[in-house]
Amino acid sequence: MDFSLSEEQKDIRKAAREFAESEFTPIAEECDEKEIFPREVWKKACELGFVGSFVDPAYGGSGLGLLDYTLIAEEFWRVDPGIGQALFSTAFGAEIIQLHGTSAQKERFLPRVVSGEAIMGLATTEPDAGSDITSAVTTAVRMGNGYRINGNKTMIGNGSIGDFLLIFCLTNPERPKVHERFSFFIVETDRKGYDGIHMHGKMGLRAYDSADVALSDVEVPSENLLGEEEGRGFYQAMDFFNMSRTWVGGFAIGAAQGAMERAIKHVKERVQFGRPLSHFQALRFKVAEMATYVEMIRNMVYKAAWRMDHGFRDHKLVAMAKWSAAELAVKVVDEALQLHGGYGYFSDYGIEKYYRAIKAVEIYEGTKEIEKHIIANEILGRVR
């Protein structure tokens, strides 16, 4: 077994780190405080190939693997989770178009996302349909040569700044199998009846747009149905989550690494009782534990990404990686703040932004309870 990165992957990591350190740091505090989407930095990220880098070169992307994309996620979140999330979100869902879209849909939408011409998002969550997406009640009803969409989505990435969204809709309520009742639609946000309202008051990740989306008699043509047939939306979403949960694990690694580095710097510099904090055994043990947790989650996430890249669709391993990465990253960030003492509670030291951001990783792309449910089903079988 070879656990080393290739030279190309080392270059990708180095480039992502240098870009984040030079571009995120000067604007991170303002973007967080004022909830500003970093549009100019996003444009630069597109120009350098960081956004949607998994997209096939035929559609303007770099054709990178999932592990490569996870490395970028890690380095972006290491420097600033809010801006890292904001940039990654602009291609959120492009995987579904690449995997399941028609040739015309891929040619029409993917190049615009990669080049920085368009921002996209994915809309599955509703006020009463979060972890259980099969409870979605947003409808898409066939009308002549198109569909009419009505419903509400909430906490949708780029819902108020995006150019188009992939929207999960109920299309076939009469089908006996619940998983065959849903379809995705590509919906341009300038269509009549679309309304996206920015949601204020997030605990963290404030540079990332989250919105309430209302759809009132929004009409789209038949060619905006994702793929060739209705009723495939649930399966398309599950394919996507197997990918997204992996690079979300990269978010967790990055936040844990970034917080730990700040904590290490602090305990080396801070003097108490006549000695640097790094001389106290209790605190040295904390750092040892943090470093071990980071290495554990890095190995599991990388393994999940590597296996996906090599054609192994291991739902259990992906769920294990995402859940453990999120939970242990929360623990590492909590300890990093603790090592700062009272200073960690203030923004001057930069540790509290990781604390505010990391909890989201335990929630989105499947809560830790959902991940455990997937793991148990794979081991014990489904409960009927």
Description:
The strands form three sheets. This protein has a four-stranded antiparallel beta sheet with strand order 2-3-7-6, with no helix packed on it. The chain has a three-stranded mixed beta sheet with strand order 1-4-5, with helices on one face. It folds into three domains: 7-115, Acyl-CoA dehydrogenase/oxidase, N-terminal domain (Butyryl-Coa Dehydrogenase, subunit A, domain 1, Orthogonal Bundle); 120-231, Butyryl-CoA Dehydrogenase, subunit A, domain 2; 235-380, Butyryl-CoA Dehydrogenase, subunit A, domain 3 (Up-down Bundle). The protein has helices at residues 7-23, 28-34, 39-47, 66-79, 81-89, 94-100, 103-115, 233-269, 281-309, 315-340, 352-358, 368-380, and strands at 120-123, 139-143, 146-157, 164-170, 182-188, 194-198, 210-221, 271-272, 275-276. The mean pLDDT is 96. A hairpin with a 2-residue loop joins strand 2 (139-143) and strand 3 (146-157). The protein is globular. It is built from twelve helices and nine strands. The protein has 384 residues and is an alpha+beta fold. The two termini are 39 Å apart.
